[in-house]
Structures are given as structure tokens and as C-alpha cells.
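Aim 2 progress update. The chain analyzed this quarter is reproduced below.
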Amino acid sequence: MDAKLIESVRKRTTNLGNGQPVVKASAWQQLGAWCVDFGIVAVVAAIAYVSVAGSDTGTTGKAIVAAIAAWLVTPWLYGFCFPRGRSLGGLAAGTRIVRSSSGGKPGFWRSGWVTFSRTVLFPIVALFLLLAAAGGSSPTMNGPKARHLTVDQRYPAVPAPIR
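Predicted C-alpha cells:
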């Protein structure tokens, strides 16, 4: 392996709550996984909109309600399909969601919640932060305690430094 790559991997190394070292996914990997998962949810919401708007009894209002409902429900169903922490976005980016305390896989309900928070809540929080910054104020938030971590599947063990 390249020395620069190993040094980059070692900088992303962190310890879980049980002391096990893992390699956190890079920001680009996390963004890529999020984009794929968000895109799937957005496509389902768009399909719901188009199918209701194109029906004989569909109005614009009904179509918008259907799209919002699909945007809120789809992440839960999508997450329930991947209770082992490997969504389609994670497969594409080579990442996995693990528990910060033990490195274990999130369970059935937690997988739905993680997917919902990443595809629905994250964009809303990002929008609020953007609007707060545009308004001249700086939001001061400590943020919630991280219960999950995105790890890089390419490195099951932390590589030793090159001497």
C-alpha cells in the first residue's frame, strides 16, 4: 500500500466504546452513500407525486401530500430492508453503519431510524443551518450524541504504520 494512503487511513482511525479500533469512512464515502440513499427516497417520492397527479381524481394538492407521505415513510421501509447496516448507498460507497459502543450491527427498528434521520432529518437540519447562516446568526448546537458510526469496509483492521 501507498504510505500516504496508510497515513490517511490511520488519521481516520478511532476507537469504539469497547476499545476496538475501526477506520471511519471518509467524508466523500459518507456523502456518496448518503446521495445514493437520498436519491432512492427522492425517486420514490417523485413516483408517488407523478402517479397521483396523473390519475383521474388526482389534484396538485393530493400529489404533494402523496410525495411528502412517501418521503416520510420510504426511509423507514428502506431501512427495515437493510437491518445489518449495509444499505444500497453503503454497498456503493463501501461503508457500513455500526454501533458506536460495540461495533455491532444496528437492529431492525434502529436501521429504519438511522435511514430516516439521514434522508429526512439531515437535509432539514442542513437547511436550517444554511438559513441561520444566511440570516447572520450562528447556531450554537452541541449536537446529539453519536450512537452510530460509518466505517470503511475496505479496512477491517487498522493498517500498521510504514517505517
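The first strand starts at residue 13 and ends at 15. The CA atoms of residues 127 and 133 lie 10 Å apart. These observations will guide the mutagenesis experiments scheduled for the next reporting period.
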